[in-house]
UniProtKB/TrEMBL annotation:
All residue ranges annotated as the Nitroreductase domain in the record: 8-163
Protein name, per record: Oxygen-insensitive NADPH nitroreductase
Family of this protein: Belongs to the flavin oxidoreductase frp family.
UniProt GO MF annotations: FMN reductase (NADPH) activity
Record SUPFAM superfamilies: FMN-dependent nitroreductase-like
Pfam families: Nitroreductase (PF00881)
């Protein structure tokens, strides 16, 4: 329909990068593109930490489940939901900040997602590739200690950036009919649509260039959702000052 929509629909996770470095001015431009994203009530609650120290990178790769590209990608960023600076803003006006609200956790976390997606789109427009690293939350307390994060700051995910050294196929998404509803929620036709989509995903996994497997989307999701999902997150977040009320 237009180059921007074409770019969005061609998104792939890139896990192999060339050794070509990214100049600081490119990284700064990408950060500015991220900052241009919508932000709830102008809260601007995303902080990005660039990690260049090889030892720290290696430890973060270990924390994320030994994902080697965390250590080797030309650029590695950690996106943090940050309500700490808002405490500073309140201090400037001798105001007693009320924190710990679930709404604050949601808005800060959403700010990170919107910021990061803007940044990734900007990066892809420059010929770069990226992959999100949610695996940092496997050992989130250790990550927080490594990055010396204060209260009211938590690492939401990481991001590897660089010039692609691979050309993976685009992974098929759910049918629009499953995700777009009219007027009210209805799943009347979703079962049949998901079953048809399962075959499309199974074919994709079977035929893709690397890491072939025999699996459908619903098989993958059902296998994932019978396991605990990082139960350590709630006590960690509460310790950091989030989700207390």
């Amino acid at each position: 329909m237009n180059p921007i929509i074409d770019l969005l629909k061609q998104h792939r996770s890139i896990r192999k990068f060339t050794a070509e470095p990214l100049p600081a001015e490119v990284i700064n431009t990408l950060i500015e593109a991220g900052q241009a994203a919508a932000t709830s009530s102008f809260i601007q609650a995303c902080t990005v930490i660039q990690i260049q120290n090889p030892d720290t990178r290696a430890q973060l790769a270990e924390c994320s489940g030994h994902q080697a590209y965390v250590a080797s990608a030309p650029v590695f960023l950690v996106f943090c939901a940050d309500m700490h600076r808002h405490q500073l803003a309140c201090d400037l006006h001798q105001a007693d900040m009320l924190s710990g609200f679930t709404e604050q956790f949601l808005t800060a976390s959403l700010d990170c997602g919107l910021f990061a997606q803007n940044l990734v789109i900007a990066a892809e427009s420059l010929g770069l590739g990226a992959v999100y690293i949610g695996g940092l939350r496997n050992q989130i307390e250790r990550v927080s200690e490594l990055l010396e994060l204060p209260e009211l700051v938590y690492p939401v995910f990481g991001l590897c950036l660089g010039y692609p050294d691979q050309n993976p196929e685009v992974k098929p998404r759910l049918p629009v009919s499953v995700v777009l509803k009219q007027e009210r929620y209805s799943d009347q036709d979703d079962r049949a649509a998901i079953q048809a989509y399962d075959e499309e995903v199974r074919t994709y996994y079977r035929q893709r260039t690397g890491n072939n497997k025999e699996m459908s989307w619903s098989e993958q999701i059902s296998g994932m959702l019978v396991k605990e999902a990082r139960p350590h997150m709630l006590p960690f977040l509460q310790k950091k000052g989030f989700l207390r009320r």
